[in-house]
Write a structure and sequence with these properties.
The complex is a heterotrimer of chains A (162), B (773) and C (289). Chain A is α+β, with helices and mostly antiparallel strands. Chain A has a 5-stranded mixed sheet with strand order 2-1-5-3-4, sandwiched between helices. In chain A, helix 2 packs across helix 5. In chain B, the strands form 8 sheets. In chain B, strands 3-7-1-14-11-12-13 form a 7-stranded mixed sheet, with helices on both faces. Chain C has 289 residues and is of the alpha+beta class. Chain C has 11 helices and 14 strands. In chain C, helix 9 packs antiparallel against helix 10. Chain C is globular, with a radius of gyration of 19 Å. Classes of the chains: A alpha+beta (162), B alpha+beta (773), C alpha+beta (289). Chains A and B meet through helix 2, helix 3, helix 4 and helix 5 of A and helix 2 and helix 17 of B.
């Protein structure tokens, strides 16, 4: 058996200790510790359902070993869902009906949030390139694009507080 | 169709709507957008075991030896089951028999006893303390398979000496449709056009692989919480376990996509067997590879059309020959075949029709339900054929269609009169308008335009005698509860029911909570398949809500000293519109009613039209409750040197009767547009000697965000359907015309046709070269 | 599930190099973990490279671009200087995997995977990149063009790590382009990948590189095709000859994605197109002066 160790990590801003064997992926580790908003879709980096951010960069948690996030900051969709100040992506997805079965949604939000930080006013091309690793089988992406653009507008106008 | 249904249509024609028809935020949306919705794979139980399925990696063989002793001996392995442990158990593969119909004699072995018929056929089930131990146990199972000759295409399977996959002759389904006199029809034709069209094996590719958790409770009931379109498989699971039907309960969860792929039994049978054996909770989560090899696929079809037509573009006769690869087990193949045969002439009035259809067993993966269910494959053929005929006659493709469209009151090929609106023409006109001017070619990049119209049933085959139940109740604080077994596979099936109840009870959607998808607790609603959930369960909720409304209105009339016909319910109030003094909140009404013993709930059953099966020899008779009509139109750019196809604009125009939630309808059309694009251009499961060689999303290419065209939705509302408020269905219809529209656009761009899907860059280049020769 | 393995997490480069003999370097994991899970590869011990200081640094100075061994494809896409320093590599990065994979996959890892369909290799070859290889005992550089020895085989010895990749920044008279032909526009395995570099002085092509991906056991430079255009004016005929030669030099296989014949034909089409585009873009620049 691979040896097990505890790793210290910030998850959604809260310090946690997760125990994991060396061969465990971050995906399995997070889900084992109750972070069920991180979804498993293919376990090989093809679908993006398991996307989380590590120090703000979206990665596929299925292709990340849990040990390698020691000392880092991990963000899941729950981290964008601060009850006082939820990320505008959430409201925009709701308004545009960009959610159908919802299984790809957490990964898409994680990818889209990073896009909007880098490119506050994304073009269709920017969105297409940013989401090409997030498969969605229900929506045809159209409403997702519209929601991301709207969230960008809200952020540019100063976020939720204004 | 019954008189009752006709009067229902008329009654719905002039309703003023407050909740229905609005793009309301779906009741399931917040949970999903915040990641808090719990899917079936997100449930765990203390002490649960983890299951794995060992599968055959070859398609045709004899299991000569299966030794699980080392796996069983591994510490932490709770249970390993093989066929020896299940001596007389079988698994149903037929349509869910919730209406008490006799099930076809097509049951299959649960685990391989001796003969392996397809790649991925299960050999053994394992339950262990951890996923890692289950994996280890899987590696410890020793087996030996003697390869046997197999058949991997339908033509070979019909040869005299072909290996027999399904007794007696590999033919697992056959349909004939005979209308008019095709010989006479062809004699009256100026031209006869013949073509054959081919479709491929397709994967549903829902993002959530099959998953479930089963446990046996204190009453001995096997509970299974899982991702499924059909909780009513509980009966078949009970049969397989050898227990009474009331000892198996299936609880759904929000489903991470279905598209027909979670219509047949998947993990629930293995979970039930392992939980029954171990008496411990067992979880089974398919990997993506398990999912690729573990559930049935969309049938490849070959569809040959021979069409007689006059010079002025009137179709005089049609002969269609259909062959479907059913794979190694029957599953829903006969029904998929029937759908294809009935749909084969398209939305066109053709007096002389002869259709022969056969589904043939091979050692490929078994094929079963997939959004569009045979009718999609039919459309790939008939719409391509329409363009080919127009080209041969040098007629405008759209005008040629207009000369042949069915109109309301016309009969289908099986002699069924269509009483609802047939707006194929209107939809085509609007879709073409929305495309606007065709862009110009640039150098070697040629622009093509294509349309496809369609006729697609909603609701199940009428001789299944389909029913659906729902319960609607009002709490003493005026909030509303809907309970129905319907499974929500992502299209907003549950939320739509809430919107119907809200409309009829005068509350907002926020005031409604929907409990669904529990075979023991929620009234049984049937399957979320066949574009039937909104039609059937929507009608059940409509009836229950209407009955409850009538009772509330009668009570309010008493309380407000008014006549019942003066009372309206809206905005959480019961009131007399013309008299502001006469008004009370639903909360007061409900609590007053409760204290007076008013029944505050209603259980209703909706029954689809019931018919007898069609005539075996002629195929004549009604087959479906009704049909949806519409059109998809696209512009594509084809790089004639590389063969790459880019879909530029994609417009779906559909008469859906009445949109309950137009935003959800758009979601279906947009999703259908991209799924159909994958069907046309990039998706293909490749089997070599029956072995799937593309079991991942790196090889099986569903469209990504970078493949998305400009998609536009046009919703027409004839209010002529059989669903609630005159709704028709859109789940499957939104997909059906997309692939043929794209195929027609590519053909328009390059001046020649690729006859077999998917239209890969390489095939485009080949077709252009062949045409130049 | 991944089979058992040990995971070393060295703190810096020195420790990493000390761990390497007998260990398998793990960078982004986008190939290695997939192959381990599918049991196409096996490894007893992995060595995590993520703790190496400044491993993702990108330097563009004195006409030279240099990236650290841990530089990801996403880093290339985000770096403002890369559009000029490596146009083909940026073209490639946009269609390389999806966003998450781009943030994980390293250029060095992609190069070392040695797959003929490794997307970053044609651009890097077209830029005449060289690799810096370090072991506990020595540091050496090797031209990427000399790196591959066969299908998934290269000259890195097991105790070596690619610590950097560098290339000369193309001058204003040089155009550098890449095109990936695949069966889907986003996140797909390449059917044919072509990268070209053309340097133009007046009406003469003074230098050219043509790199071809997914059409031979390794990505390779079509040098005989390059020779047909260096020193020439890129007329339609010259370009056609070079494209024809590139096709002849290709030795692709039939697979699920395409036939060998189609791949060969596409080498010709894409080489011709990219050379024409590159040449004409430089002509436009000249005219615009």
């Amino acid at each position: 058996m691979s040896s097990e160790k505890a790793i210290a990590v910030q998850i959604n801003g809260i310090g946690r200790e997760l125990s994991a064997p060396a061969n465990e992926t971050l995906l399995d580790c997070l889900r084992r510790h109750g972070f069920f908003e991180v979804k498993s879709g293919c376990e090989k980096g093809d679908c993006g359902a398991c996307a989380v951010q590590i120090d703000g960069e979206p990665v596929d948690s299925c292709l990340t070993l849990a040990w390698t996030v020691e000392g880092r900051s991990v963000t899941t969709l729950e981290g964008l869902n601060d009850t006082d100040n939820p990320h505008p992506l959430i409201a925009a997805f709701l308004e545009h009906g960009a959610v159908q079965c919802g299984y790809c949604t957490p990964g898409i939000m994680i990818a889209a949030e990073a896009l909007l930080r880098e490119t506050p006013e994304p073009s269709d091309d920017d969105i297409a390139i940013a989401l090409s690793g997030n498969l969605c089988r229900c929506t045809g992406y159209t409403k997702i694009f519209a929601a991301i653009k709207q969230a960008g507008e809200v952020l540019r106008a100063g976020g939720n507080d204004d | 169709m019954t008189d009752q249904e006709t009067s229902y249509r008329q009654a719905e024609a002039n309703v003023v709507l407050r909740q229905v028809g609005k793009p309301l935020e779906r009741t399931d949306a917040v949970g999903k957008a915040t990641g808090r919705t719990r899917y079936a794979g997100d449930y765990t139980m203390p002490g649960m075991l983890h299951a794995k399925v060992l599968r055959s990696d070859i398609a045709s063989g004899r299991l000569k030896r299966l030794d699980v002793s080392k796996a069983r001996a591994l510490p932490g392995v709770a249970c390993v089951l093989t066929a020896e442990d299940l001596p007389d158990r079988l698994a149903a593969t037929d349509m869910p028999g919730q209406t008490g119909q006799k099930r076809a004699a097509t049951d299959r072995q649960i685990l391989v006893r001796e003969i392996i018929r397809h790649h991925g056929e299960p050999l053994a089930l394992i339950a262990a303390e951890t996923p890692a131990l289950a994996d280890k146990a899987l590696d410890l199972i020793e087996y030996e398979i003697e390869p046997l000759p197999g058949v991997y295409d339908t033509a070979s399977a019909l040869e005299p000496d072909a290996p027999i996959v399904t007794e007696p002759d590999n033919v697992v389904g056959k349909y004939k449709i005979r209308k008019g006199d095709t010989e006479k029809g062809f004699a009256a034709a100026d031209r006869i056009i013949e073509n054959t069209f081919y479709t491929q094996f397709i994967e549903h590719a829902f993002l959530e692989p099959e998953v479930g958790l089963a446990w046996v409770d204190e009453n001995g009931v096997v509970n299974i919480r899982m991702s499924t379109q059909v909780i009513e498989h509980f009966r078949f699971i009970a049969d397989a376990l050898g227990v009474p039907h009331n000892k198996v309960r299936i609880l759904g969860a929000m489903v991470g996509g279905g598209f027909g792929g979670k219509e047949d039994i998947t993990v629930e049978l293995y979970l039930a067997l392992l939980a029954q054996t171990t008496r411990r909770p067992v979880r089974l989560a398919y990997t993506r590879e398990d999912s690729f090899v573990g559930h049935g696929k969309r049938h490849p079809f070959s569809v040959s059309h021979k069409t007689g037509v006059t010079e002025d573009g009137k179709i005089t006769a049609l002969e269609v020959t259909i062959s479907a690869d059913s794979g190694a087990y029957v599953f829903l193949s006969p029904y998929v075949l029937l759908y294809c045969a009935v749909a084969a002439p398209g939305p066109y009035r053709i007096d002389n029709v002869k259709i022969d259809a056969a589904a043939v067993a091979t050692n490929n993966m078994y094929t079963s339900a997939f959004r569009g269910f045979g009718a999609a494959q039919a459309c790939v053929a008939y719409e391509a054929q329409m363009d080919e005929i127009a080209k041969a006659l040098d007629l405008d493709r759209f005008e040629f269609r207009r000369r042949n469209f069915m109109r309301t009151g016309d009969k289908t090929a099986t002699g069924q009169t269509v009483e609802s609106a047939i707006w194929a023409d209107e939809c085509m006109t609007k879709a073409l308008d929305a495309l606007g001017d065709k862009p110009a070619d640039t150098g070697t990049v040629k622009i093509g335009r294509g349309v496809a119209t369609y006729q697609q049933s909603y609701g199940r085959i009428t001789w299944f005698h389909d029913t659906s139940e729902a319960w609607v109740g009002i709490e003493v604080d005026g909030t509303v509860i809907v309970r129905s077994g319907v499974t929500d596979i992502g299209a907003g099936q549950a939320s739509a029911l809430g919107q119907i109840a809200a409309e009829l009870l005068g509350v907002g959607l926020d005031d409604v909570v929907i409990y669904n998808s529990d075979s023991a607790v929620t009234p049984l609603a049937g399957t979320t398949t066949a574009t039937r959930a909104l039609y059937m369960t929507g009608r059940a909720v409509h009836t229950a809500s209407t009955n409850l409304r009538e009772r509330l209105v009668a009570f309010a009339a008493q309380e407000l000293d008014a006549r019942p016909d003066e009372i309206d319910l809206a905005n959480g109030q019961a009131f007399v519109p013309d008299d502001p003094s006469k008004s009370m909140s639903l909360k007061d009404l409900a609590s007053r009613g409760a204290s007076e013993g008013l029944e505050r709930s209603e259980l209703a059953m909706f029954r689809a039209p019931f018919t007898d099966p069609i005539d075996q020899e002629t195929g004549q008779g009604p087959v479906f409750p009704d049909f949806t009509y519409g059109c998809h139109a696209v512009d594509v750019a084809v790089d004639t040197e590389t063969g790459e196809v880019t879909v530029l604009k994609s417009v779906g125009a559909h008469d859906i009767g009445q949109a309950i939630n137009p935003q959800a309808v758009e979601g279906q059309i947009e999703g259908g547009a991209l799924m159909g694009q994958g069907y046309a251009l990039s998706e293909e499961l490749i089997y070599e000697e029956g072995k799937l060689v593309s079991p991942s999303f790196s090889e099986y290419l569903i469209p990504t965000s970078m493949d998305m065209p400009d998609i536009q939705c046009i919703i027409l509302e004839s209010r002529s359907g059989l669903g609630p408020f005159g709704a028709k269905g859109i789940g499957e219809p939104s997909l059906t015309p997309v692939a043929p529209a794209i195929a027609n656009a590519v053909a328009d761009a390059i001046g020649t046709r690729v006859f077999d899907l998917p239209i890969t860059p390489e095939k485009v280049v080949q077709a252009i070269r062949e045409a130049q020769r | 599930m991944l089979r058992d393995f040990e995971l070393d997490m060295p703190a810096d480069l020195q420790e990493t190099l000390a761990c390497l003999p007998g260990g398998t370097p793990l960078a982004g994991g986008t190939n290695l973990l997939v192959d381990l899970r599918a049991r196409r590869e096996s490894a007893e011990r992995l060595v995590w490279l993520g703790n190496i200081d400044a491993f993702r640094d990108i330097k563009i100075e004195d006409g030279q671009a240099a990236i650290g061994g841990g530089t990801t494809v996403g880093d290339i896409l985000r770096h403002p200087g890369m559009e000029r320093a490596a146009p083909a590599l940026v073209d490639c990065a946009r269609v390389f995997g999806g966003q998450m994979v781009r943030n994980q996959a390293t250029l060095a890892g992609n190069v070392c995977s040695g797959s003929p369909a490794a997307d970053s290799v044609p651009p890097l070859l077209s830029l005449d990149a060289e690799l810096c290889l370090a072991s506990a005992t020595q540091v050496r550089t090797i031209a990427l063009d000399d790196f591959y020895t066969g299908f998934k085989k290269n000259r890195r010895s097991p105790d070596e790590l690619v610590t950097g990749i560098s290339w000369p920044v193309p001058g204003p008279n040089t155009a550098n382009r890449f095109y990936k032909l695949a069966r889907r526009k986003g996140d797909a395995i390449t059917v044919v990948g072509v990268a070209v570099t053309v340097t133009r002085d007046g009406n003469t092509c003074t230098d050219a590189r043509i790199a071809l991906g997914a059409v031979a056991p390794t990505v390779f430079r079509a040098k005989e095709a390059e020779a047909l255009i260096i020193g020439e004016t890129l007329t339609e005929e010259r370009v056609d000859e070079a494209a024809q030669k590139a096709k002849e030099l290709s030795d692709p296989i039939d697979d699920l994605r395409a036939s060998a014949d189609y791949r060969r034909d596409m080498v010709q089409v894409l080489t011709r197109r990219l050379l024409n585009q590159a040449w004409q873009s430089l002509g436009e620049k000249e005219a615009g002066r």
